[in-house]
Design brief:
Low-confidence stretches of chain A: none
InterPro entries (chains A, B): GK/Ca_channel_bsu, Guanylate_kin-like_dom, Guanylate_kinase, Guanylate_kinase_CS, P-loop_NTPase
Order of helices and strands of chain A: EHEEEHEEHEHEHHEHH
Strand content of chain A: 15-25%
Pfam family, one (chains A, B): Guanylate_kin
Organism (chains A, B): Sutcliffiella horikoshii
Oligomer: homodimer
Distance between the termini of chain A: 19 Å
CATH superfamily of one domain in chain A: P-loop containing nucleotide triphosphate hydrolases
Enzyme class (chains A, B): transferase
CATH class of one domain in chain A: Alpha Beta
Protein name (chains A, B): Guanylate kinase
CATH topology of one domain in chain A: Rossmann fold
Shape of chain A: globular
Number of strands of chain A: 9
Strand order of the largest sheet of chain A: 2-7-1-8-9
Number of helices of chain A: 8
């Protein structure tokens, strides 16, 4: 029987570049993580594909699934629902696969209450001014919305204490390297391996 | 001011290949660890160089240094003293350098009581029979000594619970990769970075 997989949760303030880092990470050949696609009621941005970037659903469908307790976590964020369907995650973990979630900060806190053994990674901007640049250059936001986002982002950064690791997103490739190292190190945690080696000692 | 460096402690049962892994690790260009050379009263093995592999000292000198409390840890093992001089380690950590110790299991437990913030890595053989092979093929031991070493090794493996990570030494290069990942991940630990980011939030 394979060991149970790791649940890796990447989160961080809006605008820090979670999606960019996640895509870069999954483009690497030596990464064997299973991406858990989130569900959302927001409209697709240009280039986003249903079933690849998100499952795009109506509010009615989403609320029905909440009723049926089919989410590990869900949140309403800037007027839209976001959530992680539970079935795929549970199945992968049981098969020994590492599951990767990229979610908003509110959602990560919910996941932690259900999966305290998960690995929680907080993606940080190099500075708050750089975060403002990134939010601004997305080019789709008004000034009021930018200021609102910055306020929310600061509140989100205050929630860093719930996380195991902080990864600076100064360069996407460096951030990916750090995340890969964290996953590899977590597989070497003594608390995860103790039982295996205890059996080895008893067997021989 | 630079952050304080990490103290990385590699240990594991006698014969598992700690010295081989350490040498391979330090031969890599992308590794910036500072190796803390141990002091010992045992005789040099073929090819071992004083001041590179160990500081080789007499029992009289070693016991004098114990009296003066000049060791982070020391132990008597199979009739010889082994110890880590304290001054070099403290200086490197204060300068923000990562210090790497490769020591026996007894010594690592002492280090943990003095440096609980250290990163403790236990090097494991793939199996006990493989460990016996490695002890035997060193070629310098009698059968009694081999059996004695195996008994000690099993007792050492029982002490794994004091460690943060377990790294399997199935292949030296893979073991090195795991250790490198652990060091990189530890630098991303939220508990080590919280203060830095708190200051960032307050400054802006």
């Amino acid at each position: 029987m394979r060991d149970r997989g790791l649940l890796i949760v990447l989160s961080g303030p809006s605008g820090v570049g979670k999606g960019t880092v996640r895509k870069a990470l999954f483009s690497k050949e030596d990464v064997s993580l299973h991406y858990s696609i989130s569900m959302t009621t927001r409209n697709p941005r240009e280039g986003e594909v249903d079933g690849t970037d998100y499952f795009f659903k109506s509010r009615e469908v989403f609320e029905q699934l909440i009723e049926e307790d089919k989410f590990i976590e869900w949140a309403e964020y800037v007027g839209n629902y976001y959530g992680t369907p539970v079935d795929y995650v549970e199945q992968c973990l049981a098969e020994g696969k590492d599951v990767f979630l990229e979610i908003e900060v509110q959602g990560a806190i919910q996941v932690k209450s259900k999966f305290p053994e998960g690995v929680f990674i907080f993606l940080m901007p190099p500075s708050l001014s750089e975060l403002k640049n990134r939010i601004t250059t997305r080019g789709t936001e008004t000034e009021d919305l930018i200021n609102n986002r910055m306020t929310v982002a600061k509140e989100e950064i205050e929630m860093m204490d719930a996380y195991d690791y902080v990864v600076e997103n100064d360069q996407v490739d460096l951030a990916c390297d750090r995340i890969k190292a964290i996953v590899q190190a977590e597989h070497c945690k003594r608390t995860r391996l103790r039982e295996k080696y205890k059996q080895m000692l008893e067997a021989e």
